[in-house]
Amino acid sequence: MNLVLLDAETLGSDLDLSPLERFGDLEVYDITEPDETADNIAGADIVLTNKVVIDRAIMEQTPSLKLICITATGMNNVDLEAAEELGIAVRNVAGYSTTSVTEHTFAMLFAIVKKMEYYTLFARGGAWSQSPIFTHLEQPFWEIAGKRWGIIGMGTIGQNVARIATAFGAEVVYHSTSGANTDQPYKHVDLDTLLSTCDVVSIHAPLNDQTRNLIGRENLPLLRDGAILLNVGRGGIINETALARELDRRELYAGLDVLETEPIPSYHPFMHIDHIERLLMTPHVAWGSIESRQKLLEGVVKNIEEFV
Known about the structure:
By secondary structure, this protein is of the alpha/beta class. The chain is built from nine helices and twelve strands.
């Protein structure tokens, strides 16, 4: 068979793709632009894509196409209805990044809570060398134990975060955006209650009609002064313009791994806020530990095996 990987760069240059070669000839593209997709997959039996869009027109131009493997969980970049009508199988991989995203959630939290950037710069920049005492406590920080942690989206990742937050001594509450997941071993509360009573709020929900702009201008003021808002779910759940204004308006902290538009545009309001110390951003990497990406590749290989 002919296999084509359209956006290998999204998987990292260190990932060994050789397990895919046993299924046939593998052609790898680091990046595929929209106007290159049809040409890149011409004659392919199996296409692997992370974010490259494959719509009906592309499928109809590729009569040899039998299987689309999405190297991710989300499937919104493939026209599933068209694939079904054309007899093209579509497979994704779920559950591979739970540990990676969970750990990244806590990495962002600790970086913010413990003021890591400030203290690193203080020590490394020479100010500590000039200090008359052994310590420096100009930026107060607090402990997780005894604080209230609100989780939006109590799926597999949300449950894992809840378990670890509880081990640190936090009180966990959660909000189900669908209203259907209310039987977890934690207190379920409405969104306004969660936002107004929690010291930490972390988002682990998908982007859909129930979650788009779930947090914005109307309810951001409910967050406590000094609260931390973390989004490792999907961009678009938080209204980013409203959050940028709120970060400049008062003491509020945010840790974001996902944005509505990625990569972040240079004109984005987050690139121009005054209180940059209140915002921690990472470029959609929470999912991408070495182990996570290896599990993802193993999932893709399994999907091809089962299809074959």
